């Protein structure tokens, strides 16, 4: 088994979407002052590697705390926009830009989640049909080609949450081929 971390580290001053809150990570307590270390975090709900709930772009959409935890993990596959077929009943990840031209195919497959380099238009359309999206992922090129992996991307359980940073992880069973061909 191989575990691949697909997450961007959360750090002070990291890049954010224009207009989103700045990320601040500051030391609040030190071993010397309190006998423990503690950081104060100030992040937007869409900072770094994150999941988008339908409520992010749709006023009547489900919030994070309304979605069952089972929606945030499952068998997945790395796909290309130009592939002739995408598998059913799996999360789908794109390591190349995927736009609105992919929407009809995705809508017919109804994957539990979609991630990768998604345009804002595609994200909005997917969230509109209750397909959650993951963005800000790194290392998708390390995922297996033409075989499944397990994906885990659990959000914080934010009441009324429209999105949350996640620790996104792919678990690959031994012997599966890695990387893009």
TrEMBL record:
Gene3D superfamilies: Putative cyclase (3.50.30.50)
InterPro entries in the cross-refs: KFase/CYL, KFase_sf
Pfam families: Cyclase (PF04199)
UniProt name for this protein: Cyclase
